[in-house]
Amino acid sequence: MIRSILYIAGIALVAAHSLRIPLKKRPNAEFVRDVISGSRSTRAPLSSTGNVVINDYMNSQYYGEISIGTPEQTFEVIFDTGSSDVWVASSQCDKSCAGHSRYFSSKSSTYQANGTSFDIMYGSGPVSGFQSVDVTSAGGLAVPEQMFAEVVDASGLGGAFLAGKFDGILGLAFPILSVNKVPTFFQNLCESKVVSECVFAFYLGNSETDFGELTFGGVDSKYYTGEFNYVNLLHPTYWEITLGGVTSNGKSYTTCTTAIVDSGTSIITGPSADIAALAASVGAKELAGTGEYLMSCSLSHPDVNFIINGETYTLTAEDYLIPDGNICLFGFMALDIPEPTGPLWILGDVFMRKYYTVFDYTNQRVGFALANHNN
Ligand SMILES: *[C@@H]1O[C@H](CO)[C@@H](O)[C@H](O)[C@H]1NC(C)=O
Fold first, then answer.
1. Which residues of the chain register pLDDT less than 50?
2. Is the pTM of the predicted complex or chain greater than 0.85?
3. 34 has catalytic annotation
4. How close is the Cα of 266 to the center of ligand 1, in Å?
5. How far separated are the first and last CA of the chain, in Å rounded?
6. What does the buried/exposed string (b/e) look like for 121-155 if buried means 16 or more CB atoms within 10 Å of the residue's CB?
C-alpha cells in the first residue's frame, strides 16, 4: 500500500517534468533567532551558509521547511532542482489543499499583492493560482521580496499532494524554467549576496533517522567522502549534463546522451526501451504497463553503472532496491520525455542518496562525491 501511494505520487510529479522532493529544516539557532526577532531585513546574515534539515518519508519524499511572511508562516516544501518556481497552498485554496498548511496574506505585514495568474501543468493535471510577494526564508536565509505563487487549485497533483507531506515546492533550477519568468529564490539569495558562494548541496538520508541536509552557500564536509568530480552543464535550464553511458555486466543500455539531476524525482528514469532492457538484465519484471518494475530483494542483483565525464558512478542492488514488504521495487522507471526537452534520463533521489551533489550556479556545473551515511 505504501508503495502504491508514495510511488505513484513520485511518478505523477516526475511526469510534471518538474521536480518534487522535500527536505527539512535544521535550525541554525543563532541566526534563526535573528530572523525571528525581525532583524533580518536590516542586518546582513551572520553566516553565509544556511542549512535546511531534509526529512525522509520512506525514501520517497524528501521535504524541508521554509517560512513566508511576517510573522513567519511555515511550510514543508519539496526542494526541487527540476523546477524553478516557489509555490505553497493559499488560504483561498479549495478542498484540493485539505490537510496542508496554507499561506494567509492577510496575516502578514510584509505581504505585497501581485495577482498575475500562475498555471503549471503536471503529468496528472493542472495546478493554478496567482503570484504574491513576501519575505521568504529557508535555513535562516531570507529573501525580503520573493515572488511566489499561492495555489488555489492543486487537484491536478492528485494523490501526490493529497497524501503528500508537503505544502508546496521550492524550485532550484534556472530562472528560464519559471512559469512567469520571475527571479528564483536561489537567484535572489545569490544576487543579494546573502550567500557568499552561489552553490547549494544536498545530502539525502537513507531512513527516517538519517536526516538529510540542504546547504545553501557551500558544501558540508561531514556528508561526503573523497573529492568532488565536476561536470559542466549542457544548458542552464534544468541541471542538465551529458551522460556518457549506462552499463551493467559490461553491456551498454542506452544511446541517450543527456541526463538531469533532479532532487524532486524519487527514482531514476530513462527511456522506456532502455529501462526495459536494463530491467530484464537485472531480473526485474514490469508491473503491467506502468513502467515500474518489481524484483526480489536479493542483494546479488548486478550493479548498474552511470558513466559521466569519464567517471563511473555505481549503484549496487542495495542502492537501487526499494523495499515494499517482501518484494522490492526496482529504483528505475520508464519515462519517455518528448522532444525538445527529452529524451533524457532523470537522476533522482536513488542516485543522489549515494552521491552527495553540489549545484554550482556561478560556474554552471554539478559536482558529485560519495555520500557519507555514517556522518
Ligand atoms: C506582477 O509581477 C509581474 C512580474 O511577474 C510584473 O510585471 C507586474 O507588473 C506585477 N503586477 C503588479 C500588479 O504588481
1. 1-46
2. yes
3. no
4. 34
5. 32
6. ebbbeebbbbbbbbbbbbbbbbbeebbbbbbbbbb
